[in-house]
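#struct-pred

JT: dropping the chains for the assembly here, can someone run the whole complex?
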Amino acid sequence: MDFKPLVRFQDVHLRYGNGPDVLHQVNLTLEPGSFHFMVGPSGAGKSSLLRLMYLAHRPTTGRLSLFGRDVSQLDRKETSMLRRRIGIIFQDFRLLDHLSALENVALPLTITGMPLEKVRRNVSELLAWVGLADNLDSKPPTLSGGQQQRVAIARAVIGRPSLLLADEPTGNLDDKIAERLLFLFEELNKRGTTIVVASHNEALVNRFNHPVFKIINGEVRLIRSAQTIEQNTESGAA
Amino acid sequence: MFGSRNDVPLDKDASSRFLPWLIAVMVYLATMSLIVALTMNKLANRWDQGLSNSLTIQVPAGQSPAERQAIEKKTALLLQEFKKIPDVKKAEMLTDGELNKLLEPWLGKDVVLHDLPIPLLISIELSQSSARTLDAVKVLTAEKLPTASIDDHQRWLGNLLGLAKIIGTVSLLVVLLVGGAAALMVILVTRMGLAIHRQVVELFHLMGAQDAYIANRFQLHALKLSMAGGFAGLLLAGLTIAAFSTLLGQANSALLPSFTLTATEWGLLLLIPVGASLVAMITARLTVLRSLALMP
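RK: done, full complex below.
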């Protein structure tokens, strides 16, 4: 069988400028359709790891492959095309205040040159799915934090990405809403999207049966693997 | 509304408010400079055409009235000889009235010319200027009136044409400098826009927008502002020229330039705001592409 990991880090180091290593000797592989959590304290390197995955940075040393392509070999056009297969939910949402919810969510489609009528139809349906059917023309500053987050999620998934990266998506939410958000990610995962969620809330993460990477001082360790989860599930069933 | 708005909110930047004014001033200066260049060119042509086919012969009239009369007779005979030369269209001696008119600014009205040693002046108009005709006139003059001197206006005409050429060249240089300054301003404003909207640009970049897509946002914005400013500057220059034309028309002097422009010249002036807008658009595009190239 042809095994092609979606994300592969091989001895990756990351350093900003002349500073110390932010990420140190990272080796990890994410299979297509998997769901992973990244936990660790603030400043441990979770966001930096995600930034490497959505190509905001390149490894200082080591090799990073996305969708089977070595990112150091990509030209600018190929990089753009690869980015379109990645959905990102930023910690601070990064919504554009001068655009409506509809226009914000439409951005990943409009940049591809999709006909506006089709864009409008797709975006309206998705916003209705996340419960914002009545807020299509609302500007982000007039929306609540939770509504803004749903707009950010809708924007991240509108382009049907193969890989969804979420940086502290539950940061400002109470536990109940945070749990519902993670259920929503599980729904997307069932439809085939590979999910990576970075969170410092280990208690919340432990309520879900997905592999977990822990990042401490720039070092990444797998603290709960898919096999462990499988064994636990089997022993629980027995 | 949907899809018609610029994704990058450049309209709200302070730099967007002053760019049209700066472009308007630049286009105004460039237009005025080009008009000066065109006018100087036309004026030089007018002087050239008006004087290169004419000669003036100055004949010292002598101290006494008797001497003057004798020279007048010789001059009249010489005029008859001149008319026999092919290409001499007209040869005549300036009348006392005409001489009075020429001297009026310096000596005042009602001067009795015969009391003064004013030289006689012969004006010759040629149908076409050639070395052969000039030589014939010179030989004839030397033979019949050796004391006379011939002025073919080449010395001072050459100086004037040189001056006109320098003014024209400097004006064109000003147009180029103004164009360069406008391009530098656009670079500055575009960089300010990129700095202000760094997060938005980065967002587009990370969502997979190609560099050309982001550059389009900035270049269309620069084009829109430059067109508005450019045509305002042209309009202002048009009004200035209209005012100048009226003032010069009132002065009614043959030496002063006329600011009447032909359709081709108006077309050339119209190219200034269009050209400035294109320069602004291309500059904005290149500036953005250059900045984006630094992003991974």
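JT: nice. Chain B has two domains: 10-48+157-293, 61-147. The longest strand of chain B covers residues 120-126.
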